[in-house]
Amino acid sequence: MEKLIPKSFDKIIESWFQEDIPSINYHAFIVGDQQQKATLYMKQSGVVSGLAFFSRIFQKLDCEVSFSVPEGAYISLEDKSKIPIGHVTGRICDILEGERLSLNVLSHCSGISTKGYKLNEIRKKHNWKGKIAGTRKTLPGLRLVQKYALLVAGLDTHRFDLSSCVMIKDNHIKALGSIAKAIAKAKEVISFANKIEVECKNLEEAMEAAENGADIVMFDNYEPKKLKEDAASLKKLYPKTIVESSGGITEESIAEYFDMNIDVISMGSVTQEIEKIDFSLKVD
User: Fold this and answer.
1) How far apart are CA 118 and CA 252, in angstroms?
2) Which CATH architecture describes the domain 2-121+274-283?
3) Per-residue pLDDT tens for 188-206?
4) Which listed CATH number (3.20.20.70, 3.20.20.140, 3.40.50.300, 3.30.420.10) goes with 126-272?
5) Cα angle for residues 194, 197, 199 (degrees, 5° grid)
6) DSSP E strand boundaries for 131-223
7) Which residues are known catalytic residues?
8) Which of 115, 173, 178, 124 is nearest to 149 (CA)?
9) What is the pLDDT of residue 180?
10) Is residue 3 pLDDT above 90, yes or no?
């Protein structure tokens, strides 16, 4: 999974260090530069995710990192308060310089992957063949981290940015006057390699979108029963159109949206409403 992270991401890591230590590192003076070893502990059951970022942070500090669990493993603590899952070796000043940055990213990434893992388990339990996806509702500067966490959980990343896919939403439609006009404008500039998606609030809009060449039709903020009815009607005429459902779907309600005519269920909450997983790094 680490190969997915581009070398350019190092610039973001450097900005994290710049934010955390903008001038003098008093703590490095206090602890010195003797070689030390620290143990990474997981203190909460969940999916271990973000080891790649954890490693990259300490690589910038010339520290060696090793793990006893793989990326994406679900770890159950059962009756234990914590378990060791890795080690960091290097100068003590460097270990402590990267401690909080690495733990914050690991905790956040693991929280997203744990939530995604639970959603994916529900999908498997109901034998639904579609995809559960995140959205573009990510934190500025952390999009790659959050999208990576979705992949670790076995979810779909959806579009990475505004250049990945043309998503025509209600404001675009209002600005142009109709779905047909918006799609026509998109086709003037979009590459053959990109898709056009249209957010629709009813079957009439969905039919207009499909008729005018939308690759993906999103039924937005639908109740499950109405969603399945309208999705079936659309698929009957446009079987190759990808049907997506989004808006107000939760871990508790997602199973109600599973249907043979629904290809994708997208959820902003999988990157927004998460419980972070607790880790600690302790000098041996």
Assistant:
1) 11
2) Alpha-Beta Complex (3.90)
3) 999 999 999 999 999 999 9
4) 3.20.20.70
5) 160
6) 131-133, 166-168, 196-200, 216-220
7) 137
8) 115
9) 96
10) no
